[in-house]
Every structure is written in structure tokens, then in C-alpha cells.
Give the backbone structure.
Amino acid sequence: MNVFFVARNVFRRLRHDWLTVIMLGTIPLLFILLFGYAFSGTPTDIAVVIVNHDSGKITVNTKEFGTITVEKRLSDDLISGFGDHAFRARMVDDEKQAQDLVKRGRARGVIEIAPGFSQDLIDRVLSVKGEMAYSYHGQTVHLLPRGASERSAPALVLGVDRSNVPTADTIVATVRSSLNSLFLSYLAGRDTTVNWSDMMHTDDLYASGAGYMDYYSPGVIGFAVTVITSMLTLISLVREERNGVLERLLTFSIRPWELSMGYTLAFTIISLVQASEVILIAYFLFHTMFVGSLALMLLVIIVYTIGLQGLGTLLSGLARNEFQAVEYALLIILPGLILTEAFWPVEALSPALRPLVFLFPLTYLNRALRAIMLRGAGFSGIWVELTVLASYALLMLGLSVALMKRRGYTS
Amino acid sequence: MMQETILSDVVRTEGLVKRFGHVLAVRGLDLVVDEGEIYGLIGPNGSGKTTTMRMLCGILRPDEGEVYILGERVPSFKVLRSIGYMPQENAIYDDITVQENLCFFGRIQGLTREDVNTRADSILELVGLRGKRGALARDLSGGMQRRLSLAVAMIHHPALLLLDEPTAGVDPDLRVSFWEHFKELSAQGTTILITTHYLEEASRCGRVGLMSQGRLIEEGPPQALEEEAHAKTLEDAFLKLVGKGKEEG
């Protein structure tokens, strides 16, 4: 019977805490809805740059006219084979310009099509098929293999940013699939395949050889910092608020900004220790890639933690007990798991949710950490992320100081 | 003559009003506490004592009226170093030791480490916690935690002590020793504004103010209030004066 009394008392207490009841109801819903709507499966709309030098001039032997040259840009068929949603493609004429876009994070990869792409493809098809009918100036001609042709370089070169492993893999798989389909369309009816493995070459422009563990590590660091800092800030401040220490402190000669900065300093040190633990374990035990500056990485974490601590301070002003504090922390952590590129790129999310990714500071931390750890980026490579994080930190710090001032208005 | 009066006022409130929603917690409070005085605010729960205390130390902003502490209009950051506030809650860090609590609060008030140690010796002696210097605050009994809270309020030797129910939960013999110390501090010039629901304690104050429903209905030396109300004890006087105040109010 006592079990029943205890259980009933729990619900009685909840009855007087409407915020907790709402949270208890909405957090699981938020969880499943976010997961359900967030993932669209394979990444789509990946930003790529296409440099198409394909001349479309194909020299072939024919039964009827001997050697002739026809014009047909098969690379256009290759590109249309990518489909409407796989890539957000931008066409440029210059490889350097294309690679610069990847360097600046504006594109995930470069698809470079050589001048002899169409020629190479038809040569390979004819070498297997032997003969192929073709409409030439309104007349059907029969194309014949030219014999052994010399190929100096692959006709299709992919350059991918492997610091984003899921999108890099998707780019390679999509191009490969389109090329394969192109061959199959010309080999229709033939029970044979073409060996085109040397026709396509993939270069890792950044983070060469990176695997999924390398991709996840920066996300784990960002997520760990977020979980611990938000929990610690919220629970500590709510506890101090409830036992009267915070109020008492405000009757001492301490400025609200000093109080805020004091907490920020402490929680930042704790975050740095935790981030260092994750980095060391990831590096020495799992041999994850780390090619950038550790100091720059720690600086980014510090800036992010300052902002997060400010947000925690603000939310602590709303929470009336530790229970509510944990619920508010979950509101920070939950989107951090799904909508911040911690473990999945923005391209893997449902298109409707993608704009939300840019609202979360953790997104910018994850991007900056990935750029530093996997691409070796310096200040110039992460200035956008660092600027966003610094602005966020200043805003949150300002608001948390204002809240402290409101709590004890003297200072 | 007027200037002399203002200089000796440590606490002065003028027409202090505080509302919480529709509830008028303090209604036009005019209060003056002189230097070195022990002034007791007494009244039933909800009479506005704690709200008054919180306005005096700058935690609550009055809706109307002014507060002056040591001649400075509150809010004033400058005056905070001169105030020692002991709230109703213990308001101490229970996960650090007694010494660490005193050190932290003392350093924030501008004391050096040496000053803190020197002050801690005498204050811990006074509150009977000398042997508990290294104990975690959470391991202390409720009464001991209350004593630590008082020690924190006094660590920086403030000119004004605002003590909200300082002796609640404290053993009777220790309460006596507290009051002896309050008298000593008072003699040295420290002003003490104290709330208490122990009316026999209130009779030790130089003056008491009787609060009811946010109003100061009567004030004066305890004996004078007893005489005025034709009562034998302060408790009787309080009941009679509060009843009279209700009839008039």
C-alpha cells in the first residue's frame, strides 16, 4: 500500500508543477518527431562544382564512310544521370576556381570531365560491343572499334572533401552510378560489362583517407561539451538559487558581470578538460585524424562554452527546481544531437529542417572542429564559424549579466 | 541639526512600498535606525519584515519610496561592503568546508587571505564552530549551518548587520551568547537590524518596530511599548498594539 502512496504523491507533486508536466509530455514527442522528420536517408542537394571540358568530338570508324568525327557530348548524359536531387551543381570553367570553392567550404567536391570523355566512353563501349548502329546525317551508319586507343589520363576526375565523409561517399557513389548507367544504356541487350574502373579517378582534396570515426570525433567533442556544460550550468545555478546563495552573493560587493564571468571561467575550464579527454582518447586509442592546431581548437571550444554557459544562466532563471533544470538542458541537448551536424551532415536532413541547422551554435562548433581536425584549417578557414560563435557568446554573456542585474538590482 | 541626524542614520527608509501582484507587502514604511543601535522588527508571518530586509540590502527594488544606507541612496554598489546580510535560508555552500565558505565570502568582500583567517578565528569561536573549521557544511547540523550563515554575514566586519531570523533553530544557550555578541558589536558602533519571532529576544533590542500587514504600527524601546500597552510582556504588548492597529487601520 505504501508503494501506492509514494507513487500517488509523485503525481500530486507533478500536479503543482505544470511546466514539468508539459515538458514530460513534449520531450518524447519532440524526440520522435525530430528523428522522424529529420532524416531523409542518403544526403541530397550536395553542393558540387562541375568542370566540364568534354569536347563531345568522337572519332570513329564506320562500315560505310571509313573514319568520321561525330559530335555528341556524352558528359551531358552523365550529368543528367545524377538526377535532380543528388547535387546542387555549379558549373565553372576553371579547376582552380572549383577547388577554391571546396577550400572555402562552398562545395563538397569537384567533378572534372576531361576533353576526351565522350571519345573514351564510346571507345570502351565499341571495344566490347564490336559494332553499334548510329544515326549520322539522317542515315544509319555502323560504328566499329578503332583498335587499341591510348589513354593518357582518366576522363573523369572527382575531387572530394573527405572531412565530410557521408557527402564524399555520396558524391563518389552517385557519379559512379551515373557512369555505370551510361555504359549500360549503350550496351543494351548485351550480356557483358565494360571495365571502366580506370576511366574514373577519385582524389581526396582534404582529409585524405578519413573514415567515419574521424568524421564523428569532432561531433562527439562538441556534443560532450554541450551536454556537460548545459547540465552543469543549469543544475548548479538552480541549486544556488534555491538555497539562497545566489541571492546572498548579490548582497556582497560583487558585480553581476564578475559573477557571470566567474561561473563562465570555471565551466569553461571543465569543458576544456573534458574536450581534452575526448581528443586524447580519440587520437591515441582510435587513431582519429588530427592535422590542425590544438590551440585553435581549444579557442573555438572556449568561445562556444562561454555562449552556452550564458544560455544556461538564462534558462536557470526560468527553472524553479533541479528537475526543470534537467528538462531545459534536454531542450539544448536534443537538437544538438540531430540538427547540428554532430553526426550527420545537413544534406542528410529533410530539406524542410535544413534552415534550422544554422540557428544552433553547436553547428558552427562542429564545422569549425571538423575543419581544424580533418582539414588542418587555420583562422582563415574558420573565421565565419568563429565570428558566429563569438557573437553568440557576447550576446548570451550580455543577457546573462542583465539577468543577474535583475536578480539583484543594486549593481 | 538636521545634517547631524542624517549622518548618524545608518538606515533610513521613506515611504517604502512593495507589491507582489495584488498583494501589498509593505505599505509606506518610514524607518530610521541609528548608528550602533539594535533595532528589532517583529511581526507575524507575512507582515513584511523579510520583504523590508530584502529591499534594504538591494535584492528587491521598492515600488515606491527610498532607502538610504549610511547616507547612500540604495541601490549603491559602494554600500554593499558595509552590509552583512543573513537571509532566512542558510545560503551557504554546503559542498565546501566551513573555512572555505568563510574564505570565499570574505575574499569577495575584499579581505586578504590573512584577514579572513584572523577574522575566521574569532567568528568561529563566537558561533561555536571552531572545531568544525574543516568540516563540510552539509555535514553540520541544522543549527550549526545557521551559525555558519551568521559567521558569513559578519566575516567582513560590516557597519550594518541585517539579520533575518538569525537565531531560528539555534540552541537557547548559544542564543544567549549571540545576543551578548550583538551587544558588544553594538557598543563598538555596529548597527544591527534584526527580525525575530522570539519576542523575549526582541526585548533585548534597543528599539523594536511592530509590523503588521506591511505597516509599522508602533515603534520604541521594548519597555516603553509594554508601558504604552499596559502589558507585562512584549508579547502581550504586541498582541494589544496589533489589535489596536487593526481597529484603527
Chain B has a mean pLDDT of 89. Chain B is about 40% helix and 25% strand.
